[in-house]
Amino acid sequence: MRKVTLRDIATESGVSVTAVSLAMRGSKRISKAKIKEIRVIAEKLGYTRDPMMSALCAYRDTTRPKQQSTNINFLQFGETHQSMLNEGRVARDFWNGALKETKLLGYNLNSIWAGDPALNPNRVKEILTSRGVVGLIVYQSNCPIDKVRSILEDFSLLWLGDGPKDASLHCVRINRFSSMHMVWEKLSSMNYKNAGLVLAEHTISQNYGEWEAAHNHYQHKYVGRPHYIPPLTFKSNQDCDPTQLDAWIKTWKPQVIVSAFSKIYPLLKELGYRIPDDIGYVSLSTKLKTEISGIDQKSESIAQTGVRLLDQLICNREQGVPPHQQIIETNGRWNAGKTLLSTRQ
């Protein structure tokens, strides 16, 4: 049976082969209605794309200079506005990773402070449109998603990192079960048996307790239930109470603390604990080649993966909150650091 070609679709649709090619790739040079019409005809005729030709077209599109300025913006919230480069390590890594990928794909990258009290959603939308923004990246967990839905409807959308799953935005984030598996493989090899997990309330609500579930699962797998320690939960990284932390350690006597809180490590030192001699420490969000043992989440790579997904959404003209959420999870890597004993007696 003869393979259906773009020319067959063009003949059936009454348009040029070039128009069919553009429509199948979601080009902005073709109206949404026409794209839908052509794709329906292609499906009816039983068209299947040639992967090699599609790869060639994608390469050609990414290497050809764009004819007009197209922008991707980070959508920032919070009570005060500051550059993402000054918002902390993860935000800085997200920005740098996104910047690398947007340059490669031919976009400009900027940010807008949607939390500005002087701006209502309609005004934010006007500013984005005037800037030629086609895609938005949301990464902050305090995004008031219900209040900004009217902003989102005309742009392709992506959520980076932790965020409320009920927002239903396409998301790229760390694989928590894979990361915790890596943690417990290392702890087990060093003969650590009882580990205490320190969490934040907002983290639990954002990921439905995946860190705790993964921790419990792998601790049970590697050392058994008798070593279970109830997690210590604080409201936020800023609200860590050293007295409460110290009391919890003295009550449950963990050999090692596992946490994503950047403040826990210095607090342990302030409380007089010698790390790793008195107690070990594992960070679920550290960096490669630093002194703190744990998981490097490769935030720059998460952002680069996210921008590639956002580029696909932009090309396909998929805008607004999607009917079906996609979540891409990436694996971190282990940083040996100096906060664990190589072999615990």
Instruction: Please provide the ordered H/E string of secondary-structure elements.
Output: HHHHEHEHEHEEHEHHEHEHEEHEE
CATH architecture of the largest domain: 3-Layer(aba) Sandwich
| Percent in helix | 40-55%
Average pLDDT, rounded to a whole number, is: 84
Tally of DSSP helical segments: 13
Counted up, domains total: 3
Largest sheet: 6 strands, parallel
Characterise this structure.
- The structure is a single chain.
- The protein has about 350 residues and is of the alpha/beta class.
- It has three domains: about 5-65, 434 Repressor (Amino-terminal Domain) (Orthogonal Bundle), CATH 1.10.260; about 70-175 and about 300-330, Response regulator (Rossmann fold); about 175-295, Response regulator (Rossmann fold).
- Helices cover about 40% and strands about 15% of the residues.
- The protein is built from 13 helices and twelve strands.
- It has helices at about 5-15, 15-25, 30-45, 50-65, 90-105, 120-130, 150, 175-190, 200-205, 210-220, 240-250, 265-270, 300-315; strands spanning about 70-75, 110-115, 135-140, 155-160, 170-175, 195-200, 230-235, 255-260, 280-285, 295, 325-330, 335.
- It has a six-stranded parallel sheet, sandwiched between helices.
- Helix 12 links the parallel strand 8 (about 255-260) and strand 9.
- The protein is elongated, with a radius of gyration of 24 Å.
- The chain starts with 5 loop residues before the first helix and ends in a 10-residue tail after the last strand.
- Mean pLDDT is about 85; it is low at about 65-70.
